[in-house]
Each structure stands twice: as structure tokens, then as C-alpha cells.
Q: What sequence folds into this?
């Protein structure tokens, strides 16, 4: 398994292999999930005090809050995977 990192804003990066989903935080079920993660100590706030625009759900049951739009984040993740694929084919 190759280790790939993607920028989630403000110089923070995450391993793309550990992310299950990127969702918007507006819905009531997502707000409940965020509160539960906070209570369990599994919430990572990478917003630096800004508005939460995306919630990254990890395979370890951790949640990461980001101030970057989910669409932008998904594009960054795809770019990381594509560049990794292209590097493998060029070697």
C-alpha cells in the first residue's frame, strides 16, 4: 500500500488511504456524528477557528473538520491519486 497525503487546508495533510467519505456538515445526522466524536475524543478540528465546510470520515472512526469545501477536497484527493498513478507508470 502506497502512502499518499492530500492537503486539507492551512498546511494540514491527511493520508488519502484512511479517508472513507467527505461530507458537508449541515445535516442533523452529521452534526450528531460530530458531537459523538467530540465526546469520544475522536474529533480532529483542522479549521483554525473558521467555519467547518467539510467533514472527513476516517476508517478509524475519527472525524476531521476542515474549512475547505468538500468538492475542492475531493478534487485534491483525485489529483494526488492521479499523480501517484502517473508516477508508477513512468517508472
A:
Amino acid at each position: 500500500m502506497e502512502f499518499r497525503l492530500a492537503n486539507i487546508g492551512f498546511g494540514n495533510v491527511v493520508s488519502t488511504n484512511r479517508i472513507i467519505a467527505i461530507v458537508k456538515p449541515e445535516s442533523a445526522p452529521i452534526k450528531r456524528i460530530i458531537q459523538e466524536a467530540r465526546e469520544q475524543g475522536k474529533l480532529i478540528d483542522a479549521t483554525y477557528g473558521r467555519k467547518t465546510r467539510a467533514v472527513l470520515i476516517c476508517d478509524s472512526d475519527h472525524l476531521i473538520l476542515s474549512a475547505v469545501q468538500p468538492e475542492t477536497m475531493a478534487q485534491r484527493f483525485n489529483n494526488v491519486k492521479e499523480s501517484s498513478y502517473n508516477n508508477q507508470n513512468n517508472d
User: Anything to note?
Assistant: The first helix runs from residue 28 to 40. Strands lie at 5-9, 12-15, 19-23, 43-45, 54-58, 63-66. Helices lie at 28-40, 70-90. The radius of gyration is 14 Å.
